[in-house]
Each structure stands twice: as C-alpha cells, then as structure tokens.
Amino acid sequence: MTGSQVRPIFWRVEWGESIDEEVAKLLKLKAQIGGDEGKHQFTLKTAKGTRDYNPKQMAIRECVCETLTGKYGEDSKLIYDLKDQGGELLSLRYDLTVPFVRYLAMNKITNIKRYHVAKVYRRDNPAMTRGRYREFYPCDFDTAGQYDPMIPDAECLKIVHEILSELELGDFRIKVNGRRILDGMFAVCGVPDDKFRTICSTVDKLDKMSWEDVKSEMVNEKGLSEEAADQIGQYVSMQGGMDLAERLLQDAKMSQSKQACAGLTDMKQLFSYLQLFQVTDKVVFDLSLARGLDYYTGRGRRYDNLVGMFDPKGRKVEPVCWGLAPQASAQKVRTTETQFMVASAQKNLLNETLRLNAGIKMCAEVMYKKNPKLLSQLQHCEDSGIPLAAQELKDGVVDVLRANQEKDLRRLSHA
C-alpha cells in the first residue's frame, strides 16, 4: 500500500470475555438467501419491538438514565435462537459487532465513533472459576470511516493502554498481529489455501495449549504436513516490536509474500505511531496471536468487510471504538466528551500532532489523516460539538483556536 493511498479498516477491541467463536450462522444464512433469489429477500431491519439509538438519542437517553439513577461464532451452536409470536427467526445478541455494522449499513453511516457496554449471551460451557459465563457485559469501542492507515489502530491501542493502566491490574502486555501477516506466514510455510482458516483457529489456541498439542491438532486432526507445522512453530515463537517487523521483512521466506510484506510494513508504521503515544513499553508484536473469525481482517479485531456484507452496494466502512458520554442541552446535544481537537495547520505535521495529543491530559482527538485541511478539522469540531481546537506553534506553545478563546498553553507532554 503506497503512501497517500487510503484503505478502509475495521478495528474492534472488546473489554471483557474475548470472542473466540465465529458468527458462522449469519454468514451462512446470507449465502443461502443470496443463492435463492426470487423466493426470499434479505432485508435489513431491527427486530420487531426493538430499536437503535443514534448518537444524539443516546446522549439524551444516558443523561436521563444518570438522573434517574442518582448519577451513579466459530460454532453456531453457541447462539441462542428463538422465534417471536409471528414466527420470525431471531437470536439473542451474541456480540456487539454484528448489530453495530447492521446499524451502519441500514442508516448509511460512513463516519462515527462510539462505545457500547451491553449484555450478550453465549450458549457455551460455563467456567465460573475463570470468569466465563453464558451472559456477560463486553465493552466495545469502534470507529467507522475511511482514514489513513494505522492512525486509528494506534489510537485504539493507546485507549486500551490507558484503560488497563487506570484499572491498576498490575503488569500487562497488549499483543498485536495482522491477518495479512498470518496469511503470508501460512503461505510460505506450505499451508494449502483451503486450510488457512482452520489452521488459524488452531494457532489461536496457543494461549491455552502447549505447542506440542497445537502441532498435534494441525497434523493429526487437520491434515497439515509435519514439515509445514514445524515451520509455523518457528515463526509463532517470535515476539518483539518494530525490530521484529524489520527483521521479518528481511526474512528469506516472509519476504517472498507480498501479503506478509504489506502487513509487516503496516506494523512498522503502527509502532512508529505508538512511540509518539508513548505506549510501546506495553505493546508486543506476537506472531502467535490469531483469531479464527472470518470477519476479522487485520490487527487486533479489525473487520474491514463486515459492513459490505450487509450493504447491497458493497461499501467498505471502518468502525473503531471510542467513548461517547455526551451531555444534553436545550440548544444542542453534544455527542462526545472530547474537549480538544488537536489540529494541524500545515502539511507533514502528523508526528507532532500525535505527540501533542499524547501529552494533553484531557479528552482529545486528532483527524485520522496525514495532511488534513484546517477548515475540515474546524468543521469537525463544529459538527461534533468539540469546544476547543489546539495547534502547536513553536517551542512547545499551543494555540487554542476554538470557543473564542485565544491563549497560550505550555505543552503537557513528557517530552
């Protein structure tokens, strides 16, 4: 992917129990309906008696709720199916991702940030001692849109870093990998194309199984050659950061895969942004990290093509999560808590903008563009209700451009 080229992305980070099962039933249902045109119609709609909330409605709803409360998969058998009184086929909410992308497609939304905490249900074998229940509360934060590569990805990791640090859980590591890197690795190791997904699901078990057991499953149950399995074993033991991405780009086998090289180049770019956000101490590029769900397409939980599955025009839209806890007012409803837009008035200032964003100890955001227009940034402030836009002038002096305030602020970063 070349410099100025824009690629749609989907990133999802789930706080709570991880999703290791695929939403196969929904994918199969659409394929079946699509192949039987004339008899059935695939219609996007909310279930009878339910509704979605747009950001403005949600802002008002949360404000009211706070007042009233005193301010305080891989296997379809895991989905709870049911029918309503009219015989319409429904399911209990399995995750927060699929309902979100359906909402985007139905309402033709191309840009949005949101977070969502709500109960989901899995017909799974409970493991109480490990915190695995059939109902639980995941927390998703998503950003939807088309942006320059790796900027939203880096911000997602920055948010996870902030959450885990604030919770004071002790030492932690955030592992990242890329689907294109995995697929390229499988290809150069000799995995047949039709076994990519099933081998990926087996590699995904390395966090709870030994390599010997994982290898045995790949060879004895899934028919992979022992030689290919051994080559995979050499790669999935690797961990690092930008240094590992650079080393793999020079690797005799990985360098033969265009897919792997593109993913590794993106990984280098990601770590360069993470350095600006000052979070590389907790982020690890880990080749053993894998996810078996078909809708994941990139680092972490990106799902670039899932909206297109619902959209008859096949548009690609990017969700990545972001927290919105808005305040309502008589004149205009704010749909974000963001206080600062860290703006860039000139070209080629992305690194400085990200570094400044990392230093502001308030809720701040940046445009996910390498060279955004200043008027576009200010218009975003106006549309979103962000009261202040700040840009660095020189010597660490920050100029506040919005809300009729003009004053100098010293940079609050550690640099």
UniProtKB/TrEMBL annotation:
CDD domains, alphabetized: HisRS-like_core
SUPFAM superfamilies assigned to the protein according to its UniProt record, in alphabetical order: Class II aaRS and biotin synthetases (SSF55681)
GO aspect biological process, one term: histidyl-tRNA aminoacylation
Class II Histidinyl-tRNA synthetase (HisRS)-like catalytic core domain boundaries: 66-298
Gene3D superfamilies in UniProt: Bira Bifunctional Protein, Domain 2
Enzyme class per UniProt: ligase
Enzyme Commission number(s): 6.1.1.21
Binding site for L-histidine: D95, L96, T97, R122, D142, R291, Y295, Y296
Entries under InterPro entries matching the protein: aa-tRNA-synth_II/BPL/LPL, HisRS-like_core, HisRS/HisZ
A GO MF term: identical protein binding
Protein name as annotated: histidine--tRNA ligase
Native organism: Salmo trutta (Brown trout)
